């Protein structure tokens, strides 16, 4: 228990915060610096591209890119190493005190979103 208390005190000293100014439930301001993505695995089961009937374009079910005119281009997008950035799982943020953080996609908005880029932009200031 003493070991833990020393670590917690050290943490607050390093980040220049107190137990009252930085705790769960406190709203703080942060800046978005990246979209966190889960890279696709080579053997992803049930990857089924979807076709937008209005535009006639195909959409990648992982990265949600929707500008593929041909179905074969989506399969090339999956198969080419590093071409598909993967599914967005959240955002990486930097708090005002310099600490880094992560906000999962499900915690970005009260309404359901599948792609953080619909609501968040890089370098955007948010309160959380």
Structure description:
It is a single chain. The two termini are 30 Å apart. This protein has helices spanning 2-14, 71-79; strands at residues 29-38, 50-51, 58-59, 87-95, 100-104, 125-127. Strand 2 (50-51) and strand 3 form a beta hairpin. The strands form two sheets. The chain has a four-stranded antiparallel beta sheet with strand order 5-4-1-6, with no helix packed on it. With 128 residues, it is α+β, with helices and mostly antiparallel strands.
Query: In percent terms, what proportion of residues is strand?
Result: 15-25%
Tally of strands: 6
Our count of helices gives 2
Strand order, largest beta sheet: 5-4-1-6
Cα(first) to Cα(last) distance is 30 Å
Give the mean pLDDT: 83
**Basic shape:** elongated
| SSE run | HEEEHEEE
Rg: 20 Å
What key phrases describe this protein's structure?
128 residues; alpha+beta; four-stranded antiparallel sheet; two-stranded antiparallel sheet; elongated
Fold blueprint:
Elements: H1 2-14, E1 29-38, E2 50-51, E3 58-59, H2 71-79, E4 87-95, E5 100-104, E6 125-127
Antiparallel strand pairs: 1-4, 1-6, 2-3, 4-5
Can you describe this structure in just a few lines?
With 128 residues, the protein is an alpha+beta fold.
């Amino acid at each position: 228990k003493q070991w833990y208390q020393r670590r917690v005190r050290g943490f607050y000293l390093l980040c220049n915060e107190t137990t009252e100014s930085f705790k769960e439930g406190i709203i703080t301001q942060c800046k978005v610096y990246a979209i966190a993505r889960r890279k696709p695995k080579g053997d992803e089961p049930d990857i089924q591209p979807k076709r937008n009937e209005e535009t006639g374009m195909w959409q990648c079910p992982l990265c949600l890119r929707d500008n593929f005119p041909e179905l074969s281009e989506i399969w090339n997008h999956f198969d080419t190493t590093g071409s598909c950035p993967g599914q967005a799982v959240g955002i990486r943020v930097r708090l005002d005190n310099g600490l880094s953080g992560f906000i999962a996609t499900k915690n970005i908005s009260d309404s359901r979103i599948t792609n953080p880029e619909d609501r968040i932009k890089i370098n955007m200031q948010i309160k959380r």
